[in-house]
Amino acid sequence: MSKTVDIYLPLDARPICNQTVWPVAEKQISHLCEVIRDAGWEPNVLNPEGFASSVYEGMQTIEKSSAERLIVFFAGWTYPDFVVSPLWQTPENCKKLLLGSLIPDFPGAVGLMAAAAGCSQVGMETSRCFVEDFEQHDAYSEAVSTFLETGRYDYPEQKSVEIPVSQESREKAKLVREQLSGMIYGAVGPRSMEMWNKISDADFLQYFGIARLGFDGLRLAKMAEKIDDAKAEKAMQFLMDKGMEFKLGSDPEKVLTKDMVIFQMKVYYALLELKEEFGLDFIGVQDQLDWIQHYPATDLTLGILNNKLRPDSDGNTFVSATEADDGAAVTMQVLKLLSGGEPVGFNDLRYWDSKEGLYWFVNSGALAPYFAHGSHESLEGAWSERQTPMYFKAGGGTCSAAVKKPGVATWARFSYRNNKMYLCAGRGVTDVPTEEQWLERTERCNRDWPQWYLRLCSKIEQNLNSNHPMVVFGDYLADLKALAEQMDIPFECYDYCTPSEIKS
């Protein structure tokens, strides 16, 4: 066997993102190549001139690969199908390592986990490795060397705790499954950012008894344009009266403007109209990438819909997943039902501190303002400011918050392996940061986005086949296991300790 390892560099479809990340990635790749050479192998970067920024470019780049070892390097957020479809073209004997940058600045780990989910869904075996400090070769040289020599790298296994299921949990799960049957899910737009997070109409019916309706984003835009300005402005005023802060300015290139917020509240009412017209029980909205090139993001809208306290509220949350993530939406709906209607958090697994056992759940949108302090009576602690121009061309804000409601939380996710659905879940405890801690943590990590810090009962980065774990306050792990039994699908719990052990 030739001791050459090919290195493939995919990233984003937006030129500004690729231009911003590339100088950092070049230095990281240089160190990675040193580690490979020290292991007695020769690195061959397939696209040294820059990131592949489409499936087409990815296909063309992978055609250059002939080695039996391939490393896919994730320097930041990466469109998953820039990886999955190109890798599918490689020979069966080509072993693949997904290696992600874990620095807080850019979501390389998020991109890796999204791509890993797609690879898993189509039954393509990959290993994964995360690196924070590329200059510290000793921190990752063993993982890289093991992959090169054996074709695989696995994190050390940890024994999971037993999750007993009571009759009460089984009855609760049975009720939730009955409630799901006959529901209607509305998806606005096709899959977002080339992500492998769609659930087919057939699988929605087969597994959940839920009908899936699809809508074009143009319909939503045209519906929003018809909403009266005064109605949207009244909704914005409602949010401010309840304690939400809007960090407004006049330059739309740099700051959130009132016009952006007014349009976002028009989208809020347009989605409620869509809900009433088609009898929708929960929704997913694409937002990225097409929408945000022309309109303010829908993130503020979706976060508000996930809240009980909102304009013209019926007192209930209306589960709304961003990025047209069907798997996230149905997981959120399940957690909502299990928790008796409480808000459910939409998250990205952005960063983690292994020494502290601290996980940072950070996503651009759809987190309800409720999570700021756990109040259904106030929106205090939540704010909205213009989202990062690099990602959001037309601006718009989100429901920003540093989650300060303490307590046990349960994360869950419906995922696929070999095109078969399964349910994974676990628990954790919210780490409530001081203002100083929050400022320090967000110095290099999108302060304009909601942040939820958790001490988890497992190392989920080793096993999770999604970048989007959904989270609700409370312990519903046994209920979820019972639901998986009801659905006759596998259940996976990675917890190796309990929330009480973390607290102690």
UniProtKB/TrEMBL annotation:
Statement: the UniProt record of this protein carries the keyword Isomerase: yes
Key words, A-Z: Carbohydrate metabolism, Isomerase
A GO CC term assigned to this protein in UniProt: cytoplasm
Pfam families, alphabetized: Fucose_iso_C, Fucose_iso_N1
InterPro entries: Fuc_isomerase_C, Fucose_iso_N1, Fucose_isomerase, Fucose_isomerase_dom2_sf, Fucose_isomerase_N/cen_sf
Ranges where the L-fucose isomerase N-terminal-1 domain occurs: 60-139
Domain L-fucose isomerase C-terminal span(s) in chain numbering: 362-491
GO terms, molecular function: arabinose isomerase activity; L-fucose isomerase activity; manganese ion binding
Protein name, UniProt field: L-fucose isomerase
Native organism: Sedimentisphaera salicampi
